[in-house]
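Hey, resending since the last one bounced:
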Amino acid sequence: MIRIIFNDLWLDVKRNFLTFILYFVVYGMIAILGVQVTLIQFLRDLQSSGQDYSAAILDAMETSPTLQEAAISVTAVATILFLWLVLRKMPIRLARPLYVCAAGEKEKMHYLRLHLIVKVCLSLVLAVLVQLFMSGKFFVSDNWMEIVVQLGLWFFLILALNLRTDPGNRKEVLEAVPEMVTEKSEEIVAGVYWFALLIVECIVFYTLTVTEITWTLWIFLVWLVLLAVNVLIAAKCSSPILAYMLSYEKMYYPLPDKKE
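The structure tokens again:
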């Protein structure tokens, strides 16, 4: 099964390779521009004092935790956008031969869960690598509480981004016979509402970091409660979204014959 999953993912990469390159170029431009905008006030201060601000900026980035955290936060936002674009092109799908083979629903669900786990792990590795490439760091702090929360937020964010299933021929049927198409409510919850909640949580987390608010046990406990809420949402949405793909008829609706 692992071989089938990796082969499927590799086909997605080959099919969209040039698009992914374009996404990465845009990602790099947004990240660099965002960091420059974040540091614009610092640049103005150096220009007004007549200093060589290029060298001073590099020195400040190496010595100022606040500037480092701001740069990491900006690249994190760009990374989320990059992953959103990439993962839209790589939905979770059940290999078509599995629809006609003798495998039961239990085996198919095992395949889909394994597919999801592999994609989440690879997406997390990709997120870490691109942030290391752009900002030199992934974690915004050495504080273990912040590290735990940051990892939790990124895990759930990537999980929500990966809970996007193969649309099948849904678009064509919506245009031809819209009443045949059923709504995938759990996927809407995960892809819209839960994703929006996670974005808000990430904004709050990185804002707390940049403003250098000291983390206490109470702040950590509040974040643990929020992470527990994310666990409940993930448990509520994941299985129904994956189970939706077990039916070939729900993925590939029979289109009516076109009249001449």
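Residues 1-252 form one domain.

Sorry for the duplicate.
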